[in-house]
């Protein structure tokens, strides 16, 4: 089974760092589903597609995962100081 848990209905605006968020239409408003070309922090790898793997567990972070060399990397999606998404890998 793949990493994608939520369907990606529509794209958001492309951010300055190159990330493209995709949202799902959900009761109560759109929810983040995936982020394409998301910058990765904590590892020296190029931007990846990051999949949201669960509901937000705090006000500022959301659990997520991506693939690199056939391995699953887990971490959190956070907003940097400019309000742009980035993925912080658990290392």
Descriptive overview:
The chain has 91 residues and is mainly β. It has one domain. It contains no helices and eight strands. It has an eight-stranded mixed sheet with strand order 1-2-3-5-6-7-8-4, with no helix packed on it. β7 and β8 (85-89) form a beta hairpin. The radius of gyration is 12 Å and the shape is globular.
* Helix fraction bin: under 10%
List low-pLDDT spans. none
Radius of gyration: 12 Å
The helix count comes to: 0
The total count of strands amounts to: 8
Number of domains: 1
Largest sheet: 8 strands, mixed
- What would the principal axes of the Cα set say about the shape? globular
In quaternary terms, these chains amount to single chain
Give the averaged pLDDT, no decimals: 89
One letter per element, helices H and strands E, the order comes to EEEEEEEE
Give a concise summary.
The chain is mainly β and 91 residues long. It has no helices and eight strands.
Helix-strand layout with pairing:
Elements: E1 10-11, E2 20-24, E3 31-38, E4 40-41, E5 48-52, E6 62-68, E7 71-79, E8 85-89
Parallel strand pairs: 4-8
Antiparallel strand pairs: 1-2, 2-3, 3-5, 5-6, 6-7, 7-8
List keywords for this structure.
8-stranded mixed beta sheet; 91 residues; globular; single chain; mainly beta; 0% helix
